[in-house]
Amino acid sequence: MAIWIEEDAKVLVQGITGKQGMFHADKMVEYGTQIVGGCTPGKGGQTVELQGKAFPVWHSMTEAIKATDADATVIYVPPPFAGEAIMEAAEAFDSIKGEGVIVCITEGIPTLDMVKAVAYVNNRPGVRLIGPNCPGIITPGETGGAKIGIMPGHIHAKGRIGIVSKSGTLTYEAVAQTMSIDEGQSTCIGIGGDPVNGTGFIECLAAFESDPQTEAIIMIGEIGGNAEQEAAAWAADNVTKPIVGFVAGATAPPGKRMGHAGAIISGGKGTAEEKFEAFKAAGIACAMDPSELGKVLLESLKSAGLR
Amino acid sequence: MNIHEYQGKMLLKAAGVPVLEGVHCTTVEQALNAYDALGSKVVAVKSQIHAGGRGKGTVMNPSSRDVVMEGGVKIAFSKEEVQTYSSNILGNLLVTIQTGDEGKIVNNLYIEAGCDIAHEYYLALLVDRDNKSVLIMASTEGGMDIEEVAEHTPELIHKVIVDANVGLLGFQKRDLGMALGLNGAALKSFGKMLSSMYSMFCAEDCAMVEINPLVRTGADEIVALDAKVSFDENAEFRHKNWDDLRDLSEEEDTEIRAKETGLSYVKLDGNIGCLVNGAGLAMATMDVIKLYGGEPANFLDVGGGANEEQVKTAFSIILEDPNVKGILVNIFGGIMRCDIIARGVIAATEALSLQVPLVVRLAGTNVDEGKAILAASTLNIHPADDLAEGAQKIVTLIGGEA
Questions:
Q1: Is the ipTM above a cut-off of 0.85?
Q2: pTM of the model
Q3: Active-site residue B122, yes or no?
């Protein structure tokens, strides 16, 4: 078990004929992800060569899912078309299978496009959106596994730690920290730091709590908004597994934009200090430095009798 | 991206939102002509900068910092007063609660006709991340600091959440108007104005539209007396008109140049320059520097696929800040390979003949090759295995505590 994405999940790539899409599709195949083809409107019927093997391209997500019975799709479509790509995938998964996971990697999608896309996805309760502007989701296997996104596959190993993070490279940092204490990961999810996104912290925590493979959780937040505070309050009542937390942006000056549109502090709301406080109040073990996540995780595992 | 009040009002007017007549000026002469053209006995002389609190700000001489005048928005009752106020403001520094001590030079004025005000309200449209929707917020307590109102009397702030599936509905406009105590012609005027403003918000890809105050006139018309409009930069590709609205003098020069190279840079007040991949890791790097007793000089995210040229530009931007006494490079290579970064770092330090201490922490893809390249160089580069070690090293090297 893992969450949402099994090791052998069948995955489509939207934008597979583009530079980014093709590059990352190749890396995913190399890792062992079961890529079953891709979708680029106007290029249906072509094939794309990944790791020396030919993969089919369809015009539409409806055709692609009908032909492959895919479980998930990953989107590398450029920002002007990404909102619609999400909605196309949502409608196709919903009408054909009643379920599906959409992972949107694209960075720079207009916020109002995401407002529309998220409302559209939420009307189709079997469909899950992860992202946008995120590294994706990975469920490492014994050999290979399902890497759906842009994360470096080789730093991961199958294990019992679930990781959820707003930030990309900090997720990798967290993965490296689990490896430094000889722990692997069940599933790692980058939910993205944009103001309007799909899956949030609470859904990830709930899934990790009910996943038998996951025994402890690392949660990485960023300044801006109050998703971390809400998740911490929810976890205090609903999560029995140990959680280790970090929040980036303690030194960010108020109001300055730090690359992620979401990371804006307005009027004292959403500061790192506030979030760390909420974590501590919920019994989440905090690392003040991401290089200490491993150490703090090890202590948490020990005090929970898991080591 | 922020725009000036006068530009925001042009957009509002075009969308059908009632605004007062006004003229954008850059010289005292234009301001005097504007006064004549408006034909209004009373006019407002308004400084145009990308910051709030203008009315309560202080106008200063930019070199001596002597106070020229209190208030960056003045009501003029005669042409002579227009002359006095506009010459006091133009070319001088306006310091407000939102500009910080450095203030902003005022190059633009807006001369606006007077208005018969019966009541002042507050109105804002923005994207609410909690509800993942457009949120409309209004209050009877206009003209005041809305954050104070939100803190002390939150019941006076009324909210409507727009369902993206159906758009803004008639009953939502009525409910909000009635919550403000409006009725009759004023309620009707409010509903019409709100529809126009919501359409503009969506059509122009706004991040925020804030009107404080929104006023009810003696004739029960609803008019936008101020306008703070900001755009969602992600939507720039579909708004060619934004180029004309952008005021580059309001943006940090180095930040603009960084953006052109595909880097994300924000200048800070410390002395340790940072070069990192990923926004979250860049923020965490700053946090850890501070944790070990240092002060970061900047936020710099080189993105996911930086090349040698970008690394070089990043170094030169960091070094333009005279406060920088040392640099910490922190790269977790995913798609980006550590060997490429290592070569970029060496090329940049040679080309710029780097004088300050440099600590480089590499992890991830091709880390061993990257470290070997750095070790083989004769340059004075200090390697680090993790972020904590990197931060401690750079703090020590510049003579801090760590």
A1: yes
A2: 0.93
A3: yes
